[in-house]
Each structure stands twice: as C-alpha cells, then as structure tokens.
Design brief:
The protein is α/β, with parallel strands linked by helices and 372 residues long. It is built from 13 helices and 14 strands. A seven-stranded mixed β-sheet has the order 3-2-4-5-6-13-11, with helices on both faces. The N terminus is likely disordered.
C-alpha cells in the first residue's frame, strides 16, 4: 500500500460514525483515469442501487455491511431509494450472472464486493457500457470502476504482525511461526500478507506459509494440521491468521494436535466467535474494522454517482487499481482488538453487547477481564 493510500484520516463520530477524510495526494496520470460521473444522469431520490456481496462464510457481510448500506441509502434518499441485493456465496461465475441481472433490471448504480477482483473486470465494463457506474466495495475490483472504499489493507497486515511480535516477546525466534494467508482471488489478502511480512520478516522464523482457498475455516484447519505434522507441535510458537474464521479452524487444529498451551493466534473482522475466543484466551487478537464508516462512504458515493454528482466532497483520496488510475476513494483506518480494549471498541460502538459476548460459557472469563 502506498503512502498516498495511508494518508486518509477518518473521524468516527459516536452513533452516526460520520466519515471525514483529510485531503491526500493525487494519483499518477498513466492508464485509464476513473470518471466519477461517467454514464450517470441527474435523478430524483427514487434510485435503484444494486448491492452485490461476495460470500456468507464471514459473518460481517450479512450482519453489518448489508444492513448498514441499506440503512444509509434510505437515509440519503428520503426513504425513496431501493437496494436490490444478491450474495454470490464465493462463486465468481454466479456474481458475473448477478451483474447481468442488475443490468437487465436497470439499476442506477452498482456497489460490488468482488469474489474475484480480476475476473469481475468484464462485468464491470458491461455495467459501464450500460451507463451504470460502479463502486468497488471492500475489495479493489479491476475494470473501469468509478469509486472505491475499503480499509487500509496493508496496514491491517502490519497491525496483525505487530500484535503477534508483541505476544511472542523474547520468544519470537525460539521456534517457528505458521502463516495462514487468505484467498489468492482476493486482492486484500495479498495486501494483508505484504503488510504482515513487512513487520515479521527477519524477526521470526516462518516454518510454513499457506494461501487458504476461499478463506474457508475448514481449509485453514487442514493446512494447520499439515503444519503441525511437518514442524512438530513443540516447534510452533505462533500463528499468523489473516481472519477470525480461519483462526477458529486453526485453533481447533491446535487443540486436536495436543497443544496444552495455545500459541498466540491473530485474526481479523472482530467476529463474535473471535471476540469470545479472545476473552477466553484462545485467540490473541483480531483487527476491528468499523464497518459503519465504510458502508456510509459506499452509500454516499453510490447516491452521488446515481445523481450524476461529483465525488469530491466524499472521496478525498485517489487509488490506482491494476486497470484504472485515480479512482476516487475512501480508506478507513483499523484498530488492533485485544482483551484490553473490547469495552472501548466493539462494545462502545454498539457492534455487540456484553450479554452477546459473555454467554454462560464465557462469563467467568468476562468477569476476569472486567466485561460486565
């Protein structure tokens, strides 16, 4: 991730979690340049917004992203805007078909979180050719996208790597760590990996490293079983896991592998099960990504594009994709979530209540760290 991409500053206000971004440098002039108003015409509030999310293995999409975006679209259109929703369930071919359906249904704008960022390019072009602007959501889709919002994904990997080093302390080079990266079809996974390596390389010994097919916990579980068999359980001192779902599969493998004391395991997404594992001391950390400002930015850009308006007041940054230069963008910062700041993050922001986290199974552990 370039310095330019990290310069976005986001202020999350209590309740509304409004996004305010500091102005950043402009993008390179080479390549196609994003046209934030291409194909759009001035419309009233009765717009139709297509929302395509990539999968339902990760809890965030149905629990947070979809309802937050739908709520923001309604708020920005005096309750007249309609959101047409579909989930690809990790199938890029299905998602391409869903784009075709959205074009047939003549949506005014598309918000797309790509299953496969490269494969979606043809579908993005078809939408643009039909006069439908496209907002790339959470993953930087290729093709002639008009706008993009996500988190600083290289920073995510750095936050994870730094947390793992902190957990390991002077044991960092006393054994091997296992790196469980995400799916190669997700461009974010490459950025998480890059960020983590920038922190970990030279400071730990990486015994095994995997790119996990489709981000599936069961695939991470099998990979971890293989790592334990290859390295030996006494030689594994830590595990870099790119997200919480995989962390769950990894921890199951560690327990089955005979670890009396679990090594520190990282994560991402602050899923409820992940937070509960952190409370219980099974998972060391997760990365909390405040979804409200990301969803708000996507909704604001989508409504502006549907109305044929400039994105200058929303997107203060510019990002280059492999195919499109100068894409108007909003990048949201992230937080390292450990047992020490659960109260000040996911509980304070209303993501979870104490009762949701501290079920009977976790009550004693919650009491121990002051979650009441």
């Amino acid at each position: 991730m370039s310095k330019r991409m990290r310069c976005a500053a986001v202020a999350v206000a209590a309740g509304a979690m409004a996004v305010s971004l500091a102005a950043c440098g402009s993008a390179k002039e080479s390549g196609d340049k994003a046209d934030s108003t291409a194909g759009a015409t001035t419309k009233g509030d009765a717009i139709k917004v297509g929302l395509l999310l990539p999968e339902n293995q990760t809890a965030r999409y149905e629990k947070f992203d979809r309802p937050l975006i739908e709520k923001q679209i309604k708020a920005l259109t005096n309750n007249k805007g309609e959101v047409v929703y579909a989930n690809a369930k990790q199938d890029a071919t299905v998602q391409a078909q869903q784009v075709e359906t959205m074009i047939t249904n003549k949506v005014d704008v598309l918000i797309v979180d790509a299953v496969d960022a490269k494969a979606i390019a043809t579908s993005v072009k078809k939408a643009k050719d039909a006069g439908i602007p496209v907002v790339a959501y959470d993953r930087l889709a290729e093709g002639p996208i008009d706008a993009y919002t996500s988190f600083d994904n290289e920073e995510v990997g750095k936050v994870q790597g730094e947390a793992l080093l902190k957990a390991l302390g002077d044991k960092a080079k006393s054994g091997k760590i296992v790196m469980m990266n995400g799916s190669i079809t997700d461009p974010n996974a490459a950025l998480f990996k890059k960020g983590a390596h920038s922190v970990l390389d030279g400071k730990v010994n990486i015994g095994k490293e995997y790119d996990t097919k489709e981000w599936k916990p069961e695939n991470a579980n099998k990979n971890m079983e293989g790592a334990i068999s290859a390295l030996g359980k006494d030689n594994i001192v830590g595990v870099y896991s790119a997200n919480d779902g995989m962390a769950g599969g990894i921890i199951t493998a560690l327990k089955a592998g005979g670890f009396s004391t679990l090594p520190p395991v990282t994560g991402q997404d602050a899923e409820l099960a992940g937070v509960q594992r952190i409370v219980a001391g099974e998972q060391y950390m997760s990365v909390y990504k405040p979804y409200a400002p990301e969803a708000e930015a996507a909704a604001k850009m989508a409504v502006a594009l549907a109305h044929g308006e400039s994105l200058d007041s929303v997107a203060k940054d510019k990002v280059d994709s492999p195919t499109t230069k100068g894409v108007p963008s909003v990048l949201v910062p992230v937080v390292s979530l450990t047992k020490d700041n659960i109260n000040d993050t996911v509980i304070k922001d209303g993501v979870y209540t104490v009762d949701e986290i501290c079920t009977a199974k976790y009550k004693a552990a919650c009491d121990k760290i002051g979650l009441k």
